[in-house]
UniProtKB/TrEMBL annotation:
PROSITE patterns: HTH_CROC1 (PS50943), HTH_LACI_1 (PS00356), HTH_LACI_2 (PS50932). Pfam families: LacI, Peripla_BP_1. InterPro entries: Cro/C1-type_HTH, HTH_LacI, Lambda_DNA-bd_dom_sf, Peripla_BP/Lac1_sug-bd_dom, Peripla_BP_I. CDD domains: HTH_LacI, PBP1_LacI_sugar_binding-like. Residues 7-61 form the HTH lacI-type domain. Coiled coil: none annotated. It comes from Hungatella hathewayi. The keyword DNA-binding applies. This is LacI family transcriptional regulator. Keywords: DNA-binding, Repressor, Transcription, Transcription regulation. PANTHER family: HTH-TYPE TRANSCRIPTIONAL REPRESSOR PURR-RELATED, LACI-RELATED TRANSCRIPTIONAL REPRESSOR. The keyword Transcription applies. One of its GO terms (molecular function) is DNA-binding transcription factor activity.
């Protein structure tokens, strides 16, 4: 079958009666598209004798209004909701979102940025690799020098000067720790993020500052560095609870570590909320169904995505010359444990 190369993404969108962004999601296999629209778009491509792989390459490179969205993963509920916020706003502007997953691999991230630069995208939204070096900042600066604006989501870069949307990580953990203190806890432990993580460092600052303000001693053995995984949360909680002088409350710096803590406490027969209190990031949703009493820090994840797109869109249309970078710091909410 001979492939026709004259078809554009706009042609397919018009034939299908959908937005350009919807066609892009079908081609990229990312984002939600109703089964009806998906089948219709795929049928139009087939009827046009368009080879799928060639179609994807051609349609993407011919799209005039594209942005790149680069994130470590798509399974984590945090990134799923951020993605949803970005694509909602992009759909309103008929913008195609090209999603790329880095797996927190800085080398892979660099290849993706080169590819997006070659595709002449209008802008890039990115959550930089957790395991980044100065190379990440240099790559992003090179992208901006090429006239492609960049907006950071959730994580920053060492010494970088980019538009960004962050969570008030220090304030979030400060509030969580203070709530435990107000509930009468003085023996409070923390399962932290890796010490090289700038996000984790801010959260730890919030914990230590709150304990100091209230005149409480921080036992070094009660501050255990996690690895952003369920397994590390499980192991850290086990170590804490097996101590002779174990804590009465634990603050987990990530949702994965919170899940790990819950798994261990359940297996060990502890009554969460009675024998030991837990506080962690993000409402994981299923714990109340099992009668677990957890207080969580709620992050405005969809709002992060929406605001990041708006920052990028403004930069695309108004230009960035001689303008200072802008940083939006979003507050968090405390969701009390369900009684």
């Amino acid at each position: 079958m001979e492939c026709k190369m004259s078809l554009t993404i706009k042609d397919i969108a018009e034939k299908a009666g959908v937005s350009v962004a919807t066609v892009s999601r079908v081609i990229n296999g990312s984002g939600y598209v109703s089964e009806k629209n998906k089948k219709n778009i795929e049928e139009i491509i087939r009827e046009s004798n368009y080879c799928p792989n060639a179609a994807a390459r051609s349609l993407i490179t011919q799209a005039s209004d594209m942005i790149g969205l680069v994130m470590p993963e798509r399974v984590n509920p945090f990134f799923v909701k951020v993605y949803d916020g970005v694509t909602r706003k992009a759909d309103e502007e008929n913008i195609t979102v090209l999603f790329y997953k880095t797996d927190d691999d800085e080398k892979k991230q660099g290849e993706i940025l080169k590819q997006l630069k070659a595709q002449s995208v209008k802008g890039i939204l990115i959550t930089p690799s957790l395991y980044q070096t100065s190379a990440t900042r240099k790559m992003l600066e090179a992208v901006e020098r090429a006239g492609i604006p960049v907006v950071l989501i959730d994580r920053d870069t060492e010494g970088g000067d980019f538009d960004a949307v962050f969570i008030d990580n220090k304030g979030a953990i400060y509030k969580a720790t203070e709530q435990l203190i107000q509930a009468g806890h003085t023996q409070i432990a923390a399962v932290t993020s890796p010490d090289f993580s700038r996000v984790g460092a801010r959260r730890q600052d919030g914990f230590l500052e709150c304990m100091k303000k209230h005149g409480l001693e921080v036992c070094p053995d009660w501050v255990i560095e996690g690895e952003l995984s369920v397994e590390s949360g499980y192991d850290a909680c086990k170590r804490l609870m097996e101590m002779e002088n174990s804590p009465t409350a634990i603050v987990a710096f990530s949702s994965s570590e919170l899940i790990g803590c819950v798994k261990y406490l359940n297996e060990a027969g502890y009554r969460i909320g009675r024998d030991v209190c837990l506080f962690g990031f993000d409402d994981i949703g299923t714990f109340p169904d099992f009668g677990l009493q957890l207080s969580t820090i709620e992050r405005p994840m969809r709002e992060m995505g929406e605001l990041a797109f708006e920052l990028l869109w403004e930069r695309i249309h108004n230009g960035g010359k001689n303008k200072r970078s802008r940083e939006i710091l979003l507050p968090t909410n405390i969701k009390p444990a369900e009684k």
